[in-house]
Amino acid sequence: MSEKQLIRTMVRNAVVAALYFALTIALSPLSYGAIQVRIAELLMLLCFFRKDYIFGLTLGCLLANVFSSLGPFDMLFGTLATFLACGTICFCRQLVLAAFMPVIFNGLIVGAEIYFLTDGATWQHFFIFAGEVALGELIALTVGYIIFMIFGKKVYFQNLIGTSQNFNFKF
Questions:
Q1: For the segment 122-134, what is each residue's pLDDT rounded down to a tens digit?
Q2: Which residues contact 66 (CB under 8 A, 6 or more apart)?
Q3: Among the listed residues 107, 100, 105, 110, the one whose alpha carbon sits nearest the alpha carbon of residue 69
Q4: For residues 22 and 64, what is the distance between their CA atoms, to the nearest angstrom?
Q5: What is the pLDDT of residues 137-161, one digit of tens each?
Q6: DSSP character at residue 74
Q7: Which of 59, 105, 107, 127 is the most exposed place for a label (fewest CB within 10 A)?
Q8: CB distance 114 to 133 below 8 Å
Q9: Residue 34's CB: how many other CB atoms inside 10 A?
């Protein structure tokens, strides 16, 4: 990778991290809590088109989780869920499958995080917490799926995000 390409990649990731952070903070009443619809999560589908967005999204999530009521636990486990979801999205060949990765990873990992941090929670609560987190993710990623379905095959959009894979993806 040339120096110019490296700088372009770093700038793109910085912009994505800033967008994730800004959307999460601007919509904070929706972004935090057991039932959260973190609209910024739709940006995770960028990894479907370019693997290196995993860095910007992970950093944006980490910075946004600094303000979470779950504190350092969310900084660690919420960010881990984002990293793992982005990592699997990179290898998906269908957009709909990619959209389910954050639902699965965040539902299980953040659901478990909330379960372990809730005093008096029984094992049944885990399924409730996981379901609530997964539902919020499903809402955000459905919006993301629709947006990327509309714009994903447009050449100007692919140029804007620097698409390097899945040019002719399946929905």
A1: 989 999 999 999 9
A2: 75
A3: 110
A4: 8
A5: 999 999 999 999 999 999 999 999 9
A6: I
A7: 127
A8: yes
A9: 16
